[in-house]
Known about the structure:
By secondary structure, the chain is α/β, with parallel strands linked by helices.
Amino acid sequence: MKPVPKTFAVKSFGCQMNVYDGERMAELMTREGMTPADASDADLIVLNTCHIRERATEKVFSDIGRIRKDRRAKDGRGPMIAVAGCVAQAEGEEIIRRAKVDVVVGPQAYHNLPKLVAEAAAGTTALDTDMPVGSKFAALPARRTVGPTAFLTVQEGCDKFCTYCVVPYTRGAEVSRPFAAIVDEAKALVDAGAREITLLGQNVNAWEDTDGRGLHDLIRTLDRIPSLARIRYTTSHPNDMAQGLIDAHRDVESLMPFLHLPVQSGSDRLLKAMNRSHDRTSYLQLLDRVRAARPDIALSGDFIVGFPGETDADFEETLRLVDAVGYAQAFSFKYSPRPGTPAADMADQIAPDVMDERLQRLQAALNRDQLAFNESAVGRICDVLIERPGKFAGQMLGKSPWLQSVLVDSAFAIGDIARVELTAAGPKSLTGRQLVAAAA
């Protein structure tokens, strides 16, 4: 028997969907009467894990060991530890065997976390990595208090089976939440203080209601919620970028001019090996259609360097695509083999030093373009949603419509929408000058 935990801490790693899941787990624990606490003191620590990067499982074991060592040195006892998320889904039995944690719960079962914690307190190691067809969301508590920006998961899972990706195995098949449930949660988020909502999904633009309505229909409905000033969505797949969604960027004022559309490589040969459903030409043509609908849109993407078999010529194709697009932001990674994925067993794995050199060159090009995009915004007048205080006294930080961080020296309150002129730009942020009073 162990004491039933009275306090908890949730530590989330990885994508925005993990952040959302972590928030929902915290709400579950709070509903059960537990109190949030710092991880250094909490009775229960939930590690909400990500399995995308290499050695993710080993990092979990390292974190568990560090937590136990630190806590035993501090108070002579260790906390109850729960491992949640994608590593839990993929490696649940191994985590129990090696780390002897109290709870292991997958991303489709975390609504059962309070029950699992109770089982662990009774002396049983609790494991739940089921992927039930029924929605977990109905079991989650109502949203009550949020900041000016909030995440809202509308779709989970992936049917694309890119050869490098573990998501279909850890998150399951593509499932869309019901239209009415999403709208109700969005209204609750706005009532709780959100001015901006980001719709989340592994392939968010694959969202579809049972009556055939797509993400663009959902966005047009959310646009009618009073006091919801901004809508964003991520992450998208080129295969699901329907014309209706492109038209929404033209027509819906609250839909921000920002699109994250991963491409992964500029080489058609590698895109085929990755089992991507687009090629270089179709991707660029899609971006042309988006820009025709919304000329000021900021584009973001994902890139993998060092995919098995990538030649110097393949990598040069990626650099040429970057030059052609001019990304406002982008994420780039070295390929890391994920156990159980087809690419992990492919021949011609790329040497680490080659990947390092290619990643540095790619990031230099992406950083160049991000700075150029920021500098091109200087002189613009735009609305900035104030999210938090800046690093220095009297300074506030917010986001432009193009998802740029903007520093404003003013006494704005968190949640204000400030009308500013962008006056200077750096590689990571801009500064702005107040023009009129903030919008309520």
